[in-house]
TrEMBL record:
Swiss-Prot/TrEMBL keywords: Cell membrane, Membrane, Transmembrane, Transmembrane helix
Superkingdom assignment: Bacteria
Main location: membrane
Membrane topology, from the record: Multi-pass membrane protein
Residues that span the membrane, as ranges: 12-35, 47-71, 83-106, 112-131, 143-164, 170-192, 213-240, 252-271, 283-309, 329-348, 357-378, 384-404
Location relative to the cell: Cell membrane
Name of protein: Membrane protein involved in the export of O-antigen and teichoic acid
Length: 423
């Protein structure tokens, strides 16, 4: 049974799940450590930089890493891959310099020079993970997550053993350096010592990549808006306690997001192979399975947690946040829809349909932004989740349309090629 599962790609999925899980555990562990032993100021500072680096990473990925997923699984990809890496390293260095320039302007408590190592380290780690997943090497991707997990855990254990309070600069520094070093080691292992190409030819490729990145950049920024809008609107409208309530209802569902994330990582290589083989049926079948299976599991988990919420509130939350069963169910629907979003994202990136991806992301973000204010007025904080559900449905519908159009074009090109070879 196990051997059969591995032959069907189960090991790839398990490693991808481990990669996502270690990332989630790292974030959860640091957050809990700061909640239990740190101050609200320290927690806010860490959350600020953790979210800032995600925005920066999305911006840089749109110009660099996203293009790796459309490369053919042949040796012809390596020249472009080296140029993409050099562009990523250059932008990571610029991000570090910009962070150094901005830190003194932020003042206390956000002005931490450790962020100048944290930002580029995370950017390099993200790119190395993209290289590994594009090549189907999920073990290397998981290693990039395992190294910072162990390093940051060691810091937390040492602080706890010494009875010292948490140090946000140390946590940022160790996290960034360990991810950056792990990323560089994996890139060198996969691509060799000449992994980065800074030649004039490579710089010309940078300009080509930049011209092709407009849609992916628009998609990334739209997704950032879609993902984070509720945080700022609920906080501004109802205050921190309301946002804390939504967060409490979501927390127990977070493991479900790992299922879709693992599929998104593990499926990159197989999707690229099916695309270049012209296997439209296999491509679509993999996407449908990758969206449907995690979504069903998410909904089942959400129903179970909602049914057990009195126990969750009484025991895990020490009697706080009672009566959130309906909010939990809304979150489970939001996360189930996001499973299909992950599948559509992977599909359109593999088909190099970045314009379709951007249209879907912008459509979902605009719908969510328009729907959220009246729904907040009508339904209070849970209205934000209803707005996300509506925007998510629009987004997934547009993603599905883009995938089907891409597969239709791929099938047409395949038929033309076969007729030409037959002639």
């Amino acid at each position: 049974m196990i051997a059969r599962l591995f032959r069907k790609g189960g090991l790839r999925y398990v490693l991808a799940f481990a990669d996502q899980g270690l990332n989630a555990l790292l974030s959860l562990g640091v957050t809990l450590w700061l909640i239990r032993r740190g101050s609200a100021e320290q927690l806010g500072t860490y959350v600020f930089w953790a979210n800032t680096v995600l925005v920066i990473g999305t911006f840089i990925t749109a110009f660099t890493s996203v293009h790796i997923y459309r490369l053919p699984p042949t040796s012809g990809r390596y020249a472009t891959e080296r140029a993409i890496l050099s562009a990523n390293l250059t932008m990571a260095a610029l991000a570090a310099l910009l962070t150094l320039a901005v830190v003194p302007l932020l003042g206390h408590p956000l002005g931490l020079y450790a962020a100048a190592a944290f930002v580029p380290g995370i950017v390099i780690g993200l790119h190395a993970r993209a290289v590994a997943t594009a090549r189907g090497d999920m073990g290397s991707a998981a290693a990039i997550s395992a190294v910072p997990f162990v390093a940051v855990l060691a810091v937390v254990v040492a602080e706890a053993w010494l009875g010292a309070p948490p140090s946000v600069p140390l946590l940022l520094l160790v996290n960034g350096l360990s991810q950056g070093v792990a990323g560089i080691v994996i890139i060198l292992r996969l691509c060799g010592p000449g992994a980065a190409d800074f030649s004039a030819s490579a710089r010309r490729r940078w300009r080509v990549l930049a011209r092709r990145s407009g849609w992916s950049l628009l998609a990334g920024m739209a997704n950032e808006t879609f993902t984070r809008l509720y945080i700022f609107m609920v906080f501004a409208w109802f205050g921190a306690p309301a946002l804390a309530t939504l967060t409490a209802a979501q927390t127990m569902l977070r493991p479900a997001t790992l299922l879709a994330g693992a599929f998104g990582s593990a499926a990159r290589g197989p999707l690229a192979s099916r695309r270049h083989a012209g296997d439209t049926h296999g491509f679509l079948k993999l996407l449908v399975l990758g969206g449907t299976a995690p979504a069903i599991i998410t909904l089942v988990l959400g129903g179970l947690i909602a049914a057990l919420w009195p126990w969750v509130s009484a025991w895990l939350y020490a009697g706080r946040y009672a009566g959130l069963e309906n909010v939990v169910l809304l979150w489970s629907v939001v996360m189930a829809i996001s499973c299909f979003w992950v599948a559509g994202l992977a599909g359109l990136q593999s088909l190099a349909r970045l314009r379709s991806l951007a249209i879907a992301e912008v459509g979902g973000a605009i719908t969510c932004a328009i729907a959220m204010p009246p729904l907040l007025w009508l339904l209070a904080p849970p209205g934000a989740l209803v707005a996300i559900i509506i925007g998510g449905c629009v987004q997934v519908a547009l993603l599905a349309y883009g995938v089907l159009k891409g597969l239709q074009a791929l099938g047409h090109r395949r038929r033309v090629t076969l007729r030409a070879e037959a002639g």
